[in-house]
Every structure is written in structure tokens, then in C-alpha cells.
């Protein structure tokens, strides 16, 4: 089961469904940028390629087939409800990191979302906080906290079972794990099963995209590395909102 959980965990960094990933720009902003190869900091390429190859086999022969099966047997409304439950239970990650970033207003909004969705939304299955109270998601993580205090991404790093990442996001993944309530409210092996289910439902919508992108690239490692690093470098060059990196002071 630990191996299964580790394989499913690879979705977290590859598609960066949560706070460790670079933010995507809006459609009306510049999205096409180019960089010299020297801009990509990848001194561990030999190690990274080996881990990428291992992860790639795990994707294609374990994670993707499981994800496709999950989507096939799970109705869309149920899939949405499951996603909502996991997003809601991880609210403490966002709340604590907003406080660490001196953003009490966002921390308060995230706390209100958690309370509303846990009660009115029936353990987070539904999202009345957004639908009825206009409280949108404000997701963040320890990687964003490190960036808030000036930490760079360090270097590109492919982690076993985690996938494309960097030193900062890798540190963030570890720190956020200890803020995740699931290990504290359930015992082993149940907590591993639940967290594996979380990674599965998060990755499932992206499974076919991975296959498509991989099939179109001559060198999958370079393709996914460059895509990941371009997102980081783009966000360093184009800031969608200056307020995202400032304390809200409220």
C-alpha cells in the first residue's frame, strides 16, 4: 500500500494541482515566452533523468490505468463531491500559510470557507461558501510562504514518486504534509489509503493529458522539465497581481 500511495503521490508536483506550482497567467496576458537553455537550472540532470524514467513507468503502468478506471466508474457529480471533500479537509494548510505570509484576511476567508462547507456543505461535499457567500478558494502552501520571504526555487529536481519539482516546492510538500489533518484524525493504514485516494482523484482528470504530451515529445524528460521551469521563470518575469505577494494587512 505504501508503494501504491507513493505512485499516486506523483500527481502532486507534475500537474501541481495545489500551491506548490507556478501560477498560470490569464488568457489576456502574455503566455508565450522564450529562454536560453542556460536559464534552466538543472545540474542534477543525470539523477533527474533516472528518476523521471522510473516515475514514467509508474505513471504508464500503474497510475494512469487506475485513474482511468476511477473516472470510468465514478459519475461526474460524485467525482466533484470527492474532490470538494479533500479540498475542504486540507483547509488548515492554506490557513496556516496565509498567516505565515501575513495575510490575515485570506486566512479568515479560508477559515470561514472551511466552517461553512464543513457544516452547510455536509463535510465539504458541496461548496456553499463560494455559491452563496462569494468566498472563493485562496489556496496556498509552504512553498508560497518560502517565496514570500524571498526564497528562490533553487534547482530543478525530479523526486521519486513525486515527479517534477524544485528544492523550494519539495520542501513545501514536506512541510504541508505535517499541516494536513488526515494523518492526525485517522490511524494507519487508513490514513495512507485516504491520502492515496486524494492523490488519485487529483491526478485522474490529467491522466490522458500526460499520455498525449508524452507521445508528442521526442524527449519527454526535456519536454516536461522545460514546461515546468518555463512556468517558474514566466512567473518571475510576469506577475499577474502584485497583491499576491504582499501582506493584506487586514
Automatic annotation (TrEMBL):
The question of whether Lipoprotein is a record keyword is answered with yes
BP terms from Gene Ontology: intermembrane phospholipid transfer
Under InterPro entries, the record lists: MlaA
Q: Which residues form the signal peptide?
A: none
One short Pfam family name for this protein?
MlaA
Q: Which organism is it from?
A: Zhongshania aliphaticivorans
Give the record's keywords alphabetically.
Lipoprotein, Signal
Q: Which domain of life is it from?
A: Bacteria
Family classification: Belongs to the MlaA family.
Question: GO cellular component annotations, sorted alphabetically?
Answer: membrane
What name has this protein been given in UniProt? Answer: VacJ-like lipoprotein
